[in-house]
């Protein structure tokens, strides 16, 4: 079974709720995980074949949440070699804005620049279309969890 590092970027709590829900579903599927609400590269200490799942909202003019900025800045300035790391991004946003899910798109670009391997396409959750964003995550998880098999 896989060990997943779940990095959370949340301003108002929705992304944090989605990340916690995903963590519960991963546990139920037999995977281990670690939630990181203020991730640092040093704290993650990713190794070959680790899975990194970033769950982030977007706020302001397409910005990432403050608690995710140190992680993003380290990716942008240190360019760690993640060529043996797998990643996925779950992005939350409001489709009424032209910066819809821009925070998740930004994190995806940073991880690609660090040569991380994308495990699945970015999953964008429109918070205006779901009473609970966790319900949208469940649909995505049905297809994502089987990708974690060795």
What labels describe this entry?
150 residues, single chain, 22% strand, 5 helices, alpha/beta, 6 strands, Rossmann fold, six-stranded parallel beta sheet
Any overview of this molecule?
It is a single chain. With 150 residues, the protein is an alpha/beta fold. It has a single domain (3-142), classed as 3-Layer(aba) Sandwich (Rossmann fold), CATH 3.40.50.360. The protein has helices at 14-28, 41-44, 69-78, 102-113, 133-144; strands spanning 3-9, 32-36, 51-57, 86-93, 117-118, 123-126. Strands 1, 2, 3, 4, 5 and 6 form a 6-stranded parallel sheet that branches. It starts with a strand and ends in a 6-residue tail after the last helix. The mean pLDDT is 93.
What's this, in brief?
35% of the residues lie in helices and 22% in strands.
Helical stretch count? 5
Q: What is the overall pLDDT average? A: 93
State Rg: 14 Å
Provide the helix percentage: 25-40%
Strand/helix succession: EHEHEHEHEEH
Our measurement of the CA-to-CA distance between the termini, rounded to an integer number of angstroms, reads 7 Å
Output the CATH homologous superfamily. Answer: Flavodoxin domain
Which architecture would the CATH scheme give at its second level?
Answer: 3-Layer(aba) Sandwich
What spatial form do the alpha-carbon principal axes imply? Answer: globular
* Largest sheet descriptor: 6 strands, parallel
Unreliable spans:
none
Let me know the number of strands: 6
Structural class by helix and strand composition: alpha/beta
Strand content: 15-25%
Give the count of structural domains: 1
CATH topology: Rossmann fold
